[in-house]
Amino acid sequence: MIQHFHFKPLFENNLLPGWAISFYYKQQLYKAEYKKDGGIVWLGDKPTDEDKPSVEKMIHELMLFHVYD
Q1: What DSSP string describes 7-31?
Q2: Model's pTM, two decimal places?
Q3: pLDDT in tens for each of the 69 residues of the chain?
């Protein structure tokens, strides 16, 4: 489960899409950029290949809820 999920726009002009995201997963801090097409660019550590699909799914759901509601 993702904990302490935070996001903020990458640009001062909120009309430009793109967000900086950070969260904890399995007690590890992760940071990434969430692109307008739903792509995720990991900054630093990234989830294991085993965890990555479920983590990305949770991120998409959180972004849909918080940004695209």
Answers
A1: EEESSSSTTS--EEEEEEETTEEEE
A2: 0.87
A3: 999 999 998 888 766 778 999 999 999 999 999 998 899 999 999 999 999 999 999 999 999 887 765
